[in-house]
Amino acid sequence: MGLEVHLQLATISKIFSGSSTTFGGTPNSQACSVDLAMPGTLPVFNELALKFAVMFGLGIDAEINKISVFDRKNYFYPDLPKGYQISQLHHPIIGRGTFELFLGDKTIYQIGITRAHLEEDAGKSVHSHFDKESGIDLNRAGVPLLEIVTDPDFRSTEQVISYLKALHILVTYLGISDGNMAEGSMRCDVNISLREQGTDSFGTRTEIKNINSFRFIERAISFETNRQIDILEDGGEIIQETRLYDSELDETRSMRSKEIANDYRYFPEPDLLPIHITDDYISKIRDSMPELPLAKRSRFLETYDITEYDADVLTSSREIADYYEEVVTTCMNPKLAANWIQTELLAKLNKSEQSISESPVSAKKLGLLLSKIVDETISGKIAKQVFSVIWSTGEDPLLLIEKRNLKQMDDSNEIESIVQKVIDQNADQVKQYLSTDEQKRKKLLGYFVGQVMKSSNGKANPKAVNQILSDKLSEKS
Amino acid sequence: MPITPKQIIQISNLARIKIEQDQVNLLTEKIGEIISFIDKLKTIDTNEIEPLFNPLDAIQKLRFDKITEIDESDKFLGIAPSVRKNLFVVPKVID
Asked: Is the ipTM of this complex over 0.85?
């Protein structure tokens, strides 16, 4: 399998005009005369789209072509007012590169990137509310896209999905796309061909278009692979064609209308000059590149001494990674921060369907809270209670600990008197303790500690309690 | 023959240019001449020559990523033959 991903670049205006690219506007309110192909209009290239494309190229360590050229891809379709799409055929902005995948079994698998080129998006056809007609919304026409094409290097659905997830992480780290699949910011076409076991050559391929979620990609691949196997096993032949995945019927079917126009008669776009990129331009962008996901992952492993699993979770988005690092800076305990973010914070965010940037508990506040566990002001158990409160009230953790008097009891006199009370109240257990073996003593000691903690409302410092208890009990023996 | 009448008909279909049956042979001949000329150019050795991407000696000017256009959809929708719910209405799009 090989993939073509259409990535919508996160510019605020279109690739060749000054219309807004905001998703979900009133139909046609963001389509200007250039997008509508009014006579006399000319395209002017958006510098940020160029920068984003170069950032992607640097992100996958690909060739950046010093000269790249726009071409016209000619076909007639109602959502394409000009009768051609401005794209790049022979001289794409990004040339060969490689993409490293970490698979579940810890192996590294390399995917070849054939190329990535800039192009404009088409408009959208609306069918609902229309009987024998279609409605056309051209707000999307002219939105900048980067089409990323891979070599036919994928051998399993797992590889496809992990590539798409890694790609999603990369482009959102770079900030060049929001990667929102539901809004069509990342769309995927899959080329599938089969190969007889033991042979080298691929069979005829089909292309599945229009897949916009991980789940649908899995199902589309599985349907199409089985369809091809059935045909080949019955002695039939695969026709090279474009197929559409229908998520409602869970099947792929032929898109005949696109096939008729298969010859796009590309030629160089006369309205745009070639783009020249200098070494200086590239090195300036290189200097301003954020840390990439894999680099961040290795740095987290090295500096913070956390597990690989922790590193995967904590670098799964730039927001989570930034949050984590801020918590670590404040509490100075990377392992504690990693545990808390995963077990408390992310679990809670998941439940309330919020992203980390919407978290009611800021990184600063969580860091301060954890710093109080680190310096033994409060226990982990109390910290969880404090966390719950600041989750709903947004209060400052330090003030809250002060206000509710949650500080751990360190005063040994105070602890001693509680310990004494527990010993007095549990004369039977103390007797048992004094007459039994080491194993049972440990159990009973645990019981005493529990009682002390209970009557101190969880505030007694467990270390101090243990010490004082052991001392007092050994006095008796 | 560098191009066949069948290809001429196919290209005219793709380009939505209507040609009459009696023009097909003439066009096949004329366009065939152009292709032959291009083929002749292809025989020239250009190994030592830098490719010319554009005859204009200029570099593409870029624009800042800024929204400069206002919503003028009332004007554009106003000149369309058929409009409903702010959409341009066209014959049914299949797929």
From this structure: yes
